[in-house]
Structure formats: structure tokens, C-alpha cells
């Protein structure tokens, strides 16, 4: 069974439409409809990420999340490695 579709339209400046056509071609998208669908997928993903970030902030009440001992050790090792590389060691 195929999913029902709806027509979605937007007025955009001609330059934006031309740029979208060029970007779609670079991405291998066959037409403007495919480009709009891809844009809507990205919009949905961004909204999900923002909702997750808000849930995270709500859960931790604006405070930083607790860091495990293993994570803290990994952070120390990474900082030492980066400092060694920068100093030429």
C-alpha cells in the first residue's frame, strides 16, 4: 500500500530556486520535488535533535550531565595526546 501524498508549495526568490536546482544536481537528486523531500527530511532530523537536546536539558535541569570515571579518564588521555602532538612530542 502506498502512502498518501500531499502537495506542498513555497514561493522562493528566483536565485534561491536556481541555487536549489544546482545543489540538487550536486546531490544527484532528479528534480525539485526530490530536493524538497530531502529538505523536509533534514528539517525533521534537526527538529528531532533539538527536541532531544531540550529533553536532555530538562532531565538534567540545565546542569552538566554527570561524567563517569571512564569518560573522565578518556578526556584526560585525549587532552594529553593533543598537547603532546602540539608540542611536537
User: Order of SSEs, N→C?
Assistant: HHH
Largest sheet descriptor: none
Strand fraction: under 5%
> What is the oligomer described by this structure?
single chain
Low-confidence stretches: none
Return the average pLDDT rounded to an integer: 93
- Please compute the radius of gyration using only Cα atoms: 22 Å
Class based on secondary structure composition and strand pairing: mainly alpha
* Contiguous helical run count: 3
Give the overall shape, derived from the CA principal axes: elongated
Query: Termini separation (Å)?
Result: 62 Å
**Helix content percent band:** 55-70%
Total strand count, please? 0
What can you see in these coordinates?
- This protein has 89 residues and is mainly α.
- It contains three helices and no strands.
- It has helices at residues 14-27, 32-59, 69-86.
- The protein is elongated, with a radius of gyration of 22 Å.
- The model has no long low-confidence stretch (mean pLDDT 93).
Key terms:
89 residues; mainly alpha; 67% helix; 0% strand; elongated
Please give the structural blueprint.
Blueprint: H1 14-27, H2 32-59, H3 69-86
Write a concise synopsis of the structure shown:
With 89 residues, this protein is an all-alpha fold. Helix content is 67%, strand content 0%. The longest helix has 28 residues, at 32-59.
Amino acid at each position: 500500500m502506498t502512502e498518501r501524498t500531499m502537495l506542498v508549495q513555497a514561493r522562493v526568490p528566483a536565485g534561491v530556486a536556481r541555487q536549489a536546482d544546482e545543489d540538487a544536481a550536486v546531490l544527484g537528486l532528479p528534480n525539485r520535488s526530490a530536493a524538497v523531500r530531502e529538505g523536509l527530511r533534514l528539517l525533521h532530523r534537526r527538529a528531532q535533535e533539538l527536541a532531544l537536546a531540550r529533553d536532555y536539558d530538562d532531565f538534567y535541569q540545565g546542569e552538566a550531565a554527570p561524567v563517569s570515571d571512564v569518560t573522565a579518564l578518556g578526556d584526560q588521555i585525549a587532552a594529553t595526546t593533543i598537547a603532546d602532538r602540539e608540542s611536537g612530542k
